[in-house]
Amino acid sequence: MEEREKPQISGERLRELRMSRGLTPRRLEQASGVPYDRLNELELGGGTAEDSTIEELADALDVDPSELLAD
Questions:
Q1: C-alpha 46 chain-centroid distance
Q2: Looking at the 3D structure of the chain, how many domains does it have?
Q3: pLDDT > 80? residue 1
Q4: 32 falls within a domain
Q5: Higher pLDDT residue, 1 or 20?
Q6: What is the tens place of the pLDDT at every residue in 11-54?
Q7: Is residue 60 part of a domain?
Q8: Is residue 3 part of a domain?
Q9: Cα gap 59→51, rounded to integer Å
Q10: Distance (Å, rounded) from C-alpha 8 to C-alpha 50?
């Protein structure tokens, strides 16, 4: 069974969406369940993330998960 690559998150988009909703990283942590350190890491450098992390963030930000992904 072949493993597929994890999706790449756009850190810049994540930060823009969070800020446009007036959320601090700590508030997004509370709303999404994604740890603060992981949020910080993703915002600063983007990177790959599990599907579940992307879904949790998208739900908390009320966006489609695809809006968090890098082009």
A1: 9
A2: 1
A3: no
A4: yes
A5: 20
A6: 999 999 999 999 999 999 999 999 999 999 999 987 889 999 99
A7: yes
A8: no
A9: 12
A10: 9
Residue type, 1: M
Q: How many Å is the Cα radius of gyration of the chain?
A: 11
Please tell me whether the overall predicted TM-score, pTM, comes out greater than 0.85 for this model. yes
The structure tokens listed for 26 are: 């700590």
Distance of CA 61 to the CA centre of its chain: 9
CATH number, residue 60: 1.10.260.40
* Residue 66: partners with Cβ closer than 8 Å, 6 or more residues away: none
Secondary element (H or E) of residue 47: strand 47-48
Contact 25, 18 (CB under 8 A): yes
Domain that holds residue 31: 8-68
Tokens of 10: 């756009």
Comparison of pLDDT for 4 and 58, the residue scoring more = 58
